[in-house]
Amino acid sequence: MDLIDGNKIASDIVAELRAEVAQINGRKPCIALVRVGEDPASVSYVRKKEKTAAEIGVTSRILLPPVTITQDELFALIDGLNADPSVDGILVQSPLPRGFDEVAVFRRVSPEKDVDGFNTLNLGKVAQEDESGFVSCTPAGIMELLARSGVDLKGRHVVVLGRSLIVGKPVALLALQKKSGANGTVTICHSGTSNVSALTRQADVLIAAIGRPEFVTADMVKPGVVVIDVGINRVADPTKKAGYRLTGDVHFPTVSALASKITPVPGGVGPMTVAMLMKNTVKAFRLRQVR
Ligand code: NAP
Prior knowledge:
- By secondary structure, this protein is an alpha/beta fold.
- The chain has 2 domains: about 25-110, Leucine Dehydrogenase, chain A, domain 1 (Rossmann fold), CATH 3.40.50.10860; about 135-270, Rossmann fold.
- Helices cover about 40% and strands about 15% of the residues.
- It has helices at about 5-20, 40-55, 70-85, 100-110, 120-130, 135-150, 170-175, 195-200, 250-255, 270-290; strands at about 1-5, 30-35, 60-65, 90, 155-160, 185-190, 205-210, 225-230, 235, 245, 260.
- The chain has a 6-stranded parallel beta sheet. A 3-stranded parallel beta sheet has the order 3-2-4, with helices on both faces. Strands 9-10 form a two-stranded antiparallel ribbon.
- Helix 1 (about 5-20) packs parallel to helix 10, helix 6 (about 135-150) crosses helix 7 (about 170-175) and helix 6 packs across helix 10 (about 270-290).
- NADP nicotinamide-adenine-dinucleotide phosphate binds next to helix 10.
């Protein structure tokens, strides 16, 4: 079994981006990171993004509106960033506090600055295989992990567990694209799918993104499967200082014994998400230079 090392692959991408940004004379690419409220996971995600941006030489602008901000006020803040010529990319950290219409907020971000890839136009470009848009970071990171691990999806059955707009649907569309490295035959499972195991057992490549700790067990996969575990779940564990441990959607100890390649949690897909955000930010900067 080969471990797909997301930390290593993400750090390779960060190094490539650092070299690319070092070549830019004058103003460097800039990302605005908007975090509403103090959700602990969001605090740590934004901190990580800020740190990675600094490593690459991307400028980050951190905006921390209070949880009491109204949706209209948040729209006004986003409009200001959309119009600001010194900002290339905008990320509004998800999840937003209860009461916000998250999809409406994502739509408010200008498609040209939508480095998170959640705007309707950019999601549509994924379906149209139009590479001028931004692919959302976790699905893009999964495709990059596969490509850099030598996994070609052509002729292989890719089973995706989950159909969220953030992971499941876009990664299924990417795996399906008629292009080199992709070209997979794709099945998507969701909570309405009957007999999920019968489908996962047919997978040559299994992408699990359902948010259920250790849902995929050894009896659900075939020997030699490539497993990408997107899940990040907190499971209570009194032996840990934090009182919990992180686990994926896959039961790693048993599934890894059968898999030909597998991502760990943490250290698999997670680090790729931030690296791809930075890649999108540099792309947004470049596209704005030629417009
Ligand atoms: P989500 O929006 O909650 O979507 C979960 C999907 O799984 C839904 O489509 C749901 O079906 C499906 N599902 C739930 N239970 C199922 C079951 N028993 N059988 C089959 N399908 C089932 O979650 P998400 O945002 O996609 O995130 C999924 C996981 O990935 C979470 O653990 C999240 O923390 C993690 N994640 C990680 C990263 C990263 O950077 N590594 C980024 C994003 C998310 P329905 O549509 O029918 O409800």
